[in-house]
Design a protein that fits this description.
Layout: H1 7-20, H2 25-53, E1 88-97, E2 104-112, H3 132-142, H4 147-158, H5 166-184, E3 193-203, E4 212-221, E5 226-233, H6 239-251, E6 259-262, H7 266-275, E7 280-283, H8 285-293, H9 301-311, H10 323-340, H11 345-352, H12 369-372, H13 376-388, H14 398-413, H15 423-437, H16 441-446, H17 451-458
Parallel strand pairs: 3-6, 6-7
Antiparallel strand pairs: 1-2, 3-4, 4-5
């Protein structure tokens, strides 16, 4: 028997299908943005119908609970009597909403057997009011999911006739925000990561204040699956901010990963060494390349960039992961430095800063090298968030900023490509896990600092 699927469930399935198609990330996010707006509008329509009939989908009229205007069960002495109307839902008809982003098609519920005609107070009888998309998105995400702000914004944009009841607005806002609230408190003890990627992006979210960071973490678990781990607003990318963020992940049960991939921020590096001292740390090579080439003249820029990436090209070496491969690449770094030191001493100094962390990834599975040597993927997704809020200028607070970042990142995470590991690679990862978490004296000697220092203290 064919299972009936609600329009909102169908939109969720469409969103998941977009990421399963393997299209470029930018194309995926454009489509997901439209589907996300469509989901909000569809949710609003369904909520209005629930309120009009006085009961939820598939609920019988005689079983509908008495509710007050706030959506709570009414007490026996409450004077508020909900209106439970005769009639029932009878499918949907597709209608188009004109927006500045183009037409968005939604399914307007059809009602039968009612004594009154249903008319959407948000969209009118034809559901084609311009700016409905912008009003809902801005009110929900940008204004911090405030019920009063949603109502006021809709009234400003669409007129006083578009005002929604408090219970309808609350149901829309709660459905959007509830997912993030549950996600940020979830238990992480069942997740074991091989790799943890950490990055931050800056947004303006407080009055008269500069852009402030939103800290983010995602990883690859032992089954090769991508996992979105954490997201949190902070006042700065200081040692204390990153330390609190990372400790929060461990307090929720996260097991330290084998390798942490990040940029070269001093606060982040020191926090990783303190909180994740048993994990190896990889300096993002894309960030490092930018640091180096920013100190090179335009005349030599392409040549320096080409030679930088040639340092880390291991395809023709034929060496297995481990110390010999690391030593070979470190010699290349020395050769590069010797060639360019007199011409661009600042660029060479940047390259040699935190030099050991540039080759930590070479201890791991060869098939993973090109994906664990940088943290650029989550940075590109953050870039999509910044692009979408560029016209806003400033968020009114942390809640709205983090909510929007979560909305983009959580949907993007469903499409992140996982890691495929060969049997040889699996054995390599298992050896690394044993060496980092339960090292022998012989293994401890070959571990790079700070992991060696941390493990020595732990022993």
């Amino acid at each position: 028997m064919h299972k009936r699927v609600s329009p909102t469930e169908a939109i969720h399935a469409e969103i998941d299908a977009v990421f399963a198609e393997g299209r470029p990330l930018a194309d995926c996010l454009e489509q997901v943005a439209r589907l996300g707006a469509k989901l909000i509008i569809q949710t609003a329509l369904e909520a209005e119908v629930d309120e009009f009939l006085g009961r939820a989908r598939y609920q019988r009229a005689d079983a509908a609970p008495a509710q007050d205007d706030d959506g709570q069960d009414a007490a026996e002495d409450s004077p508020v009597v909900p209106v439970v109307r005769a009639g029932h839902r009878n499918g949907h008809r597709e209608v188009a909403i004109r927006t500045t982003s183009g037409p968005v098609k939604v399914k307007k519920p059809k009602l039968r057997g009612t004594t009154e005609r249903f008319a959407s107070r948000l969209f009118g009888t034809t559901v084609t009011r311009t700016n409905a998309l912008e009003s809902l998105v801005i009110a929900s995400f940008v204004r911090g999911l405030s019920t009063r702000d949603v109502t006021n914004t809709l009234a400003e944009a669409l007129g006083s006739d578009a005002a929604l009841s408090k219970s309808t607005v609350s149901s829309i806002c709660q459905s959007i925000r509830g997912e993030y609230d549950a996600w940020r408190e979830r238990d992480l003890s069942t997740i074991t990561l091989d790799y943890l990627f950490i990055d931050a992006s800056h947004f303006r979210m407080h009055p008269n204040a500069p852009a402030e960071p939103v800290l983010a973490a995602w990883g690859i678990d032992t089954d090769g699956r991508p996992v979105f781990i954490g997201l949190e607003a902070a006042g700065s990318e200081s040692h204390d901010a990153w330390t609190d963020f990372l400790k929060g992940l461990l307090e929720r049960g996260l097991v330290p990963p084998l390798l942490v991939i990040s940029d070269g921020g001093a606060g982040l590096i020191s926090a990783c060494e303190l909180v994740l001292g048993r994990s190896l740390r990889q300096r993002c090579l894309i960030h490092k390349c930018r640091n180096v080439t920013s100190k090179v003249s335009r005349h030599d820029l392409e040549q320096v960039k080409k030679e930088f990436w040639e340092i880390f090209d291991t395809g023709e070496l034929g060496l297995p992961p481990g110390q010999r491969l690391i030593e070979t690449i470190q010699r290349r770094i020395g050769d590069f430095a010797a060639k360019w030191e007199k011409v661009y001493p600042a660029a060479v100094k940047s390259l040699l800063t935190d030099r050991g962390s540039l080759t930590a990834y070479l201890r791991f599975s060869v098939e993973h090298h090109k994906r664990i040597r940088h943290s650029n993927f989550i940075e590109r997704t953050f870039g999509e968030t910044r692009r979408r809020v560029k016209v806003i200028g400033r968020f009114p607070g942390e809640t709205s900023c983090v909510s929007l970042a979560f909305a983009v990142l959580s949907r993007a995470a469903t499409g992140w490509r996982g890691f495929t590991t060969t049997p040889t690679g699996l054995r390599q990862l298992e050896r690394m896990r044993h060496a980092l978490l339960h090292p022998t004296e012989a293994e401890l000697i070959h571990l790079p600092p700070p992991a060696r220092v941390s493990l020595t203290k732990a022993a």
